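queue> holo job accepted (flavin-adenine dinucleotide)
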Amino acid sequence: MKLSFSDEDEKFRAEVALWLFENLVGEFEQLKFRGGPGDEHMFPLERKKWEQKLAQGGWTCIGWPKEYGGRGCSIEQQVIFNEEYARAGAPGRVGHIGEGLAGPTLIAFGSEAQKQKYLPGIAAGTALWCQGYSEPGAGSDLANVNTKAHFDEAKGKWIISGQKVWTSLAHESDYIFVIARTNPNSSAHKGLGFFLMKMDQPGIEVRGIRQLTGTSEFNEVFFDQAECDADDIVGQPGEGWAIAMGLLNFERGVSTLGQQMQFQNELNQIIDIAKANGKSQNPTIRQRIADAHIGLKIMRYNSMRMLSDTDDGGLQKEALIYKLFWATWHRDLGELAMDVLGPEAEILESGPYTLTRLQAMYLFVRSDTIYGGTNEIQRNIIAERGLGMPKEPKITA
Amino acid sequence: MEFSFTEEQKMIRDTAQAFLAEVSSSNAIRSAMDTEQGFDPQIWQRICEEMYWQAIHIPEEYGGMGLGYVDLVVMLEQMGRYLLCSPFFSTVCLASNALIVAGTDEQKQQYLTQICEGSLTATLAYTSKNGQWDATAVQGIVTTQGDDYVLNGTYRYVLDGHTAQLLIVAARSEGSEGEQGISLFAIDANTPGVKRTWLPTMDQTRKQAEIVFDNVRVSSSQLMGEANNAWPQLNKVLQLAAIAIAAEQVGGSQQVLDLTLEYTKERVQFGRPIAGFQAVKHQAADMMLRTEVARSAVYYAACVAEEALSGGLLADELGEAASVAKSYCSEGYFKNAGDALQLHGGVGFTWEYDVHLYFKRAKSSELFLGDAAYHREHVATLLLD
Ligand SMILES: Cc1cc2nc3c(=O)[nH]c(=O)nc-3n(C[C@H](O)[C@H](O)[C@H](O)COP(=O)(O)OP(=O)(O)OC[C@H]3O[C@@H](n4cnc5c(N)ncnc54)[C@H](O)[C@@H]3O)c2cc1C
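queue> job finished
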């Protein structure tokens, strides 16, 4: 075991830190510690510009191969980048779905033409993506998709109709990837297709959904005879499920260490408040703060183990626990924040419903245990894939 | 960065696993725990002579293998998994560490060599009936008499204290308080005035003793570390030991999970294996989470311990890493053992099934060297004061 980074990696770290120090200034200064879950609605235009700034510096998609506009960075370097990015307080990435999900999926499963068409925009920070998986009837049971796709021979295009829901950032996005049913007689995970679609077209309507935080970062997306070019289906019609699942594997990865830095920033804020208002001397609060610190430390060790075992990008079965652990930890942190604040926790920054960062965090973390697979679904996955316990019985009507 | 085992470490683990599966069977554990001594001398001899485990992290100049703390932890995990009944923990994780950290050259030469040869068992005595694990636990009194020292006091919860041949003893000067005035001694258990009594325990797989020192005369050559100033060294030994016991706890967590999986896949109720019920699956999933998370904490702490012994970059993190590991692993193991008992239903409540042995060991190792709350308070002090 060796926990330190090589001299070369440390040089890379210095390079990242210096670039951020020199560039996260001026008009971007106000973006520090902004954006990201719970704050996604803030400064959308400025943050889009920041994506492009990052791209100019060569700091988008750094883990992608060079031929696709990436930097070909090692896992260690990606870890370091994410750490420094969060340490500098650089803003939540509006481009993360394209960079972390759409791009890797295209690199793994897309045609050469699709790669040429879509990857440069993602790498340049000019094309933002959102994820069209969930539907009113298809949440945890992701395969229960009703959105339909049929190929119109005359037009030479796929025609998509149906509805997606809870689509994060759809209102800011240029593209959406959609799973839809290509075979109307199929059910469950058979007969699906994976489509790449332009948002700005007549058949697509986006309606914001107000969240419990009072803000909207997710949406309903309606498809009414929306069009998708013939060569914008990834893989073959009917193969969509495998691609959708492949993509979910990209959701867990190197960004975790950056996420932890963000968590660390939140915990530090809570500690500062506790010291200032005297709660730091309350024995129960002391125990809970220590517990949060311990959990965060171990989260870091977990991901180091996870990344060290990953030579081929595949995940070992131990990695299955990761989402359940961080989501539950973060939810607890939200409660800790409120309990440390005491009655002050209730007082809003201003009316009618403007939350402070910690209030927004506290409310938003309730979604961490829901999106990306609920805690219950995570436990099913751990039990079935990690421990080989029997699968849930399927009810066939 | 490479946070995973080397090929050599994997070999150590697999060898330990295979050996312990053989020698520390349910029957072997039960016969050892029925004795006052608490272990089978023949198995201990095989461990020392065939396996050479007691020498694993002792420097080569004293006849040890000179490997690192990570290698030690790899084995401890397996010992915890198979509930090995032996004086390994007391001799290696308490006494050897104390000798390495605080012993004089002569003491190391003499005792570490004997430990490596397998001719000496040893332990650490520092706790008193007040039930504390920090410096206030040290209540034994040492006075000087010419060049010699005289020791008085009653020590409790001394692992293998009734069988160990060498006692590493912490005592304080009269009137001293807290971390001040503490000295460490290496004392032959047969020294006149040392009275040792076995304390029967709920967890029978690990034996404890009470030791009374009644005007025990000790020469200055038996002093370890610096007179009156040995707390930092003793503290370091305790941190290293906390990491060692956390490693055992990880092994135990894994084993109760494995036993539970095996049982729930076989036990049929309502027409199907109970492993198919979500209420059962979700408990098992939480058990796996706790085990893996505990493992990450221990492996990291082991790396830190290794650097703390060799003066590496992470040495300063020892106290924090030890408390992180001991607090998480203590609660994790106990919860896992409790869930295992629950999921075994009625049979889990029997003497015949091994689950209760783990349930009891989980609690005894949770309490030993400070429970989760104690270690969290350590962390809180680092963060908040
Ligand atoms: C903030 C946020 C952002 C999101 N962003 C996106 C996005 O960008 N794109 C997208 O496609 N989706 C997105 N989602 C949707 C998210 O993936 C779903 O909400 C999630 O998969 C849960 O599905 P559901 O809401 O339909 O709940 P349901 O599936 O209806 O679940 C309701 C409850 O039942 C439990 N349950 C369901 N099935 C089982 C089972 N088999 N065993 C045990 N318990 C079960 C669940 O755990 C949950 O507690 C987002 C959600 C949120 C909250």
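queue> Strands of chain B lie at 122-125, 141-145, 148-159, 166-173, 182-188, 194-199, 208-218, 223-224, 268-269, 272-273.
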